[in-house]
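Form 12-C: Joint structure prediction
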Amino acid sequence: MRPEGNRRATYGGPATAILCLLFGLGAVPALAEEPTWRQVEPANLVFMELLEGRVVIELNPVFAPKTVNQFRELVQDRFYDGLSFYRVIDGFVAQGGDGSDLGELSEVPLIEAEFEREWSADLPFTVVQKPDLFAPETGFTDGFAAARDARGEAIWLTHCPGVVAMARNDGADSSRTDFYIVIGQAPRYLDRNMSVFGRVIQGMEVVQAIRRGAPGDNGIIRDDAAASRIRSMRLGSDIPEEERLAAYVVDTNSDGFADLLRDRRKRTQRFFHHRPPEVLDVCQVPMAGRLTK
Amino acid sequence: MRPEGNRRATYGGPATAILCLLFGLGAVPALAEEPTWRQVEPANLVFMELLEGRVVIELNPVFAPKTVNQFRELVQDRFYDGLSFYRVIDGFVAQGGDGSDLGELSEVPLIEAEFEREWSADLPFTVVQKPDLFAPETGFTDGFAAARDARGEAIWLTHCPGVVAMARNDGADSSRTDFYIVIGQAPRYLDRNMSVFGRVIQGMEVVQAIRRGAPGDNGIIRDDAAASRIRSMRLGSDIPEEERLAAYVVDTNSDGFADLLRDRRKRTQRFFHHRPPEVLDVCQVPMAGRLTK
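Section 2 - Result
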């Protein structure tokens, strides 16, 4: 059954089209309008260097002002430099920091819970799905996946892959330094229960390469030398402008983004022999950012 | 803000409890009954060795008999040994093979589409969610995540992380050799449109370490030498019994598994300050298997 000759078909041609269709980007028919991009403010950018590569995080001070404030201070204090991802469960989360949230040794202040906020008409919100399985309504607010309650009074950031949130103990206000990044199917049951304060906008493949712990041992990596390590974390605004990379993310408030959502919902391409239901999972919309010098 | 002394809290204590709660395994209160395990038939086991590590796949001949048949033959012919994952999009799929499905060069036969099958009362089905966002009903059938239509006439395997399915061109019956593994948020819009024929039961962290292609280039890795390579693929039944590892998976037909689903749906632990909605995403139930000598 092994074909003779070239074992690898040439690239391009129909091949290129196919995953475009699957991925829903550059789809046919073309979007009426392309999404526009916005630049991330340098104060909301975090460059996290691991041995595995660079991870770029966008902070969200609109939804988690106190958490972002303390996290920024810790980054500026180089608190995380040299610490590891000490609890990593494949398909769930990679948790890093000094473990102080979980013990009694830390002198870093506790942070008040920022699980959700009041809806306000000046918040942008581009609807994705109504109703969603886990919430009456999902959408994007300034690039972040979010959800609203039935009465439109509360809004929260949803636990999608790449989301960055504070770890905590049983108490709502028990976060200090430890954070996790979601690396698996969205654990949406954590929505409104954790302080989500950022999202990975580049380098998720680096996050996915973080060393896992044993599932039977709750993901804990007991040999710290074997764990993936944070070489450094820097705020974009602390990097001299001439060295700094500019980060751009899809402007989810743009008409082009709304067109993209419409296109993903319809799936009119002939690739689809069974037409999918016209629904969207807010965590399954590709949102990777771009970095430029 | 950096605490003096030990920068790393001790393990155990409350720490151990917390991610248990988050992960929903070993949860409190204890399950009435623990799920039982079933051994995977060696003929349905595939050991795929990458440089990155070992991936173990369970084949599903009940839902995709023709696909499994041809895949088994290709594995026995050592067709995949030395081939690479040539198109890998982070958060979506890792696609491997010789690319012949996408070109005109292959002598390997085409496979008829096996996108879904008729519901039959002798198929086991443990309900997870009704209705689900993408289907009237989801559940597990012999360990595989699945969904049924409203009239209970059709059943299909759902695109969850770790699912293994055949790549194809626009035509429904255009698969030959290339396959993909889902590595990101479940692309459920592909359900009933692809021949899902297996699932990764161990080694998803290895799959997640597969080298990605450039998103702008549709994930294609143009330098084949840089791609992740399949060193070998072997059927469990082709490995001498004394060398063979036995694979065990959760028996999704067991009462213990139904208890586990109930526990995950309820989330009564005091960790939850906001009680999550009593719904379950069929793709967010941890299903990793165990290997023993």
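Section 3 - Comments
Residues 30-98+112-292 of chain B form a domain with the Cyclophilin fold (CATH 2.40.100.10). Residues 1-29 of chain B have pLDDT under 50 and may be disordered.
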